[in-house]
Structures are given as structure tokens and as C-alpha cells.
Amino acid sequence: MFNFSPKNDKFYDLFIEFTSIIEEASNELTLLSRNVEDAEGISLRLKDIEHKGDDLVHKILQELNNSFITPLDREDILLIVKRLDDVVDNIEDISGRYLMYDIKTSREKSYTIVDLINESCKKMKDLFIKLQNFKTDDSIYKVISELNLLETKGDYAYRDGMRELFTTEVNNIEIIVWKDLYEKLEKTLDSCETLANVVEGVVMKHA
């Protein structure tokens, strides 16, 4: 049955619920980066978290299908859901690479990017809490700016890690492995900024 309520805040609540899944995934990634010997167990937990994200995507799409009136344009809700899911998928993909490459030792430079991912993921909840009131409170722009800054810091950390990789005595296999991992870490941080930019676009459209 269609939900005809003119004020359906359930979508905001579901977005915020999704940010808890994102934060849970990023905490596991942080743990993985420092405890590669537990990669298999952490990877299994991340797979379960990724499944929770998929279930929530399905729940949001069902809600969208059953709602006649939505607080945001339908295409914006769909895009936000896609970008939320991208963040979780990227994090889970990183854990798969740790397993695939049988990483025995992490590189110090990778911690910086992982920590930036974790910090970005923790800001997501605040971003979507503020999205509920963006028409009367413009403080959401501060969170978006902070997320953009974290991504910029990630670019520098990525370059530092790659420079160290290619300027120290490292065997060719390790170069291939860590080049891929650094690129995936950067892509994951980029996906956090992309989500923030999507939200910014939605806010500006409705301001």
C-alpha cells in the first residue's frame, strides 16, 4: 500500500542507519590494517556487514516503491543509496585483496589512508543527521567541507605511499601488490567524498 504521508522522514532514518553500517565496516578495516594475521576472520565479518548493507538497500528501495510522496526527489534517493552502498562495497573489496594477496605485513604509509577512511566514515552519520534539517540549518556544508579536506589529505598520503614504494628496495611482486592496495584505498576514500558531493548537490537543488 502506498504511503501518502507528506512528511515521510523514514528515508532520513534509513540513511542514518546505513551510516552505522559504514562506520562498522570502516572500524573493521582499521582493525584489519593493523592485524593482517586475522585477515580471514575480519574479511568474513566484513562480508556479513556488506550483506547487511545490501539488505538495507533492498529495504530502502521497497520503501521508495511504496511511497507516493518522498522528502527528496526519487532519483536523488536512488543516487544516495547507490553511493552509500559503494562505500561499504569498496571497504569489503579491500579486505578481499588482503586475503587474495596473502598480506603478511602492512606498510606504515597505508595506516594514514585507512585512518582517513575511518574518520570520513564516522562523519557520515553527522552528514545525514544534518541533511534532515538542511533547509533551516546550513551547518551541513561544514561537514561536507571536512569530508572534502579528508579526501585531499588522502591524495597526499597516497602519493607518499606510492613514492616510498617505488623509491625503496622492494621486490617487484610487493610493488604490484601494494600499488593495487594503495589504489583501492584511495578509491574508497574517494567514494566517501563522492557521497558527500552527491548530498551537497541535493541540498543545493532544494535550497
From TrEMBL:
InterPro entries on file: PhoU-like_sf, Put_Phosphate_transp_reg, UPF0111_domain
Its domain of life reads Bacteria
Similarity comment: Belongs to the UPF0111 family.
What's the protein called, per UniProt? Phosphate transport system regulatory protein PhoU
